[in-house]
Amino acid sequence: MKESKDDLMDIKKTHDIGTLSPSMKGQKVVVGGWVEDLRELGKLTFLTLRDVTGVSQIVVAGTENLQQVKDLTRQSVVQITGAVQESKARDFAYEIKAEKVEILSRAIHPLPIDPLGRLESGIDNRLNARALDLRNQKTASIFKIRHNTLLCIRKVLTDRGFLEVNTPKIIGSASEGGANLFSLKYFDKQAYLAQSPQLYKEQLTLGLERIFEISSFYRAEKSHTVRHLTEFTSVDIESAFMDYTDVMEILEQLIVSVFEHVEKTCIQEQKNLGIEIRKPKTPFDRVTYRQAIEELGKQGLALSFGDDLLDSHLRKLGEIHPGFYFLTEWPLKLKPFYIHEKEDDIEVSKSFDLQYGYLELSSGGRRLHDPVKIKARLLEQGLDPVQFEDHLRAFDWGMPPHSGWGLGLDRLMTVLTQIDNVREVVLYPRDPERLFP
Ligand code: AMO
């Protein structure tokens, strides 16, 4: 069988652009990437070639090579074989003199968005062409920071003795109760998408003591805000033999470590985004719910014990406590059935939210581990204990006291990158309107 030109072509590169330097003068290299810019100057054509690691200038000369790049569109993918040489260009410390130019894939013209960002595109257009949007260095920087955040979270929790687990996302009954569940047909049965790993993570403390999960969860909420998605990423931990104040301390340390790690490892990314990531001040303020309603009362926002804090209240509290702070000890009746009461003040719960100004980043608390109490709380909240039978069984097998939290990774990313809209920090966000791409 005759091989086609494509089969014969070696598509590999010898170097990523980011590894090249002026000290490699004279060395032959094969690089590949996409053409950001293209300028004809007399008998030469200059290409600006980018790959995921960096950007370089390519000098193209000679009839055959010039013919190759003559009608080349920006963002097309090329492979260049050539030698590193000194450059006279202001922006480049070296350049590559092309010996061979291979066009691997042509980009159409015009493209749906300008990935260089010279022509500004609205967020909807950018999300509709998300893969191309990632060639924009600002957008790529967000996801490099996200990657480094995840690396750091895994390291910190592993070092603290937590084991990473994966719990099911297709479930047979509601994990937390409530109406915001997506339902789906599971062959001839009714199933749901998990809102949270809550029940599984609690059960797992029975055998594994300290666990964490980083995963997508689903909420069928028709919220059109910059902080809500229908599919979001949650970092969840659960630990046996810890109280709520212990897991708050872990959360605070984790946040500080993430900021320190990203500050050090994502220097170019911060430049690209025009931001400076700095370690937050510690310890974070700890404000009880009772203190919070007192503070709000002084600002003319009168609330009684047991009232939920609305967006307007949280915004006011955010002005009083800018940055990170814990809002603790919520009225028990405002918290889910699994949250433990304070032994010396049973209307109050052993719970907390981590706030960044008005924005809720995490919530957690000490859990009930006595099945009799859990059943009573389910009934109080109008939930049917029969629906929770599988879960409750585990509480008869020797369930240790335990605490945990769930942290919204996407919301944390908006704080780190100083970008308001959560859609910017998620590759393919899902909200009530957006199901594609
Ligand atoms: P909660 O429902 O407060 O708690 O969720 C935990 C954190 O997840 C994030 N989050 C969201 N982010 C984006 N879009 C959404 N629709 C969305 N919903 C929630 C928030 C929130 O603080 N089981 C408990 C946690 C626990 O007690 O361990 C729970 O799910 O940042």
TrEMBL record:
SUPFAM superfamilies: Class II aaRS and biotin synthetases, Nucleic acid-binding proteins. One of its GO terms (molecular function) is magnesium ion binding. Binds 3 Mg(2+) cations per subunit. The strongest magnesium site (Mg1) is bound to the beta- and gamma-phosphates of ATP and four water molecules complete its coordination sphere. Its cofactor is Mg(2+). Mg(2+) 3 binds at E360. Residues 198-201 are annotated as: Aspartate. It is found in: Cytoplasm. Pfam families: tRNA-synt_2, tRNA_anti-codon. It catalyses: tRNA(Asp) + L-aspartate + ATP = L-aspartyl-tRNA(Asp) + AMP + diphosphate. Mg(2+) 2 binds at E360, S363. Signal peptide: none annotated. It is an enzyme of class 6 (ligase). Keywords: Aminoacyl-tRNA synthetase, ATP-binding, Cytoplasm, Ligase, Magnesium, Metal-binding, Nucleotide-binding, Protein biosynthesis. Its main location: cytoplasm. L-aspartate binds at E176, R219, S363, R367. GO terms for cellular component: aminoacyl-tRNA synthetase multienzyme complex; cytosol. Its EC number is 6.1.1.12. One of its GO terms (biological process) is aspartyl-tRNA aminoacylation. ATP binds at R219, A220, E221, R227, H228, L229, E360, G408, L409, D410, R411. NCBIfam families: aspS_nondisc, PRK05159.1. Belongs to the class-II aminoacyl-tRNA synthetase family. Type 2 subfamily. PANTHER family: ASPARTATE--TRNA LIGASE, CYTOPLASMIC, ASPARTYL-TRNA SYNTHETASE. Catalyzes the attachment of L-aspartate to tRNA(Asp) in a two-step reaction: L-aspartate is first activated by ATP to form Asp-AMP and then transferred to the acceptor end of tRNA(Asp). This is Aspartate--tRNA ligase. It comes from Candidatus Nitrosotalea okcheonensis.
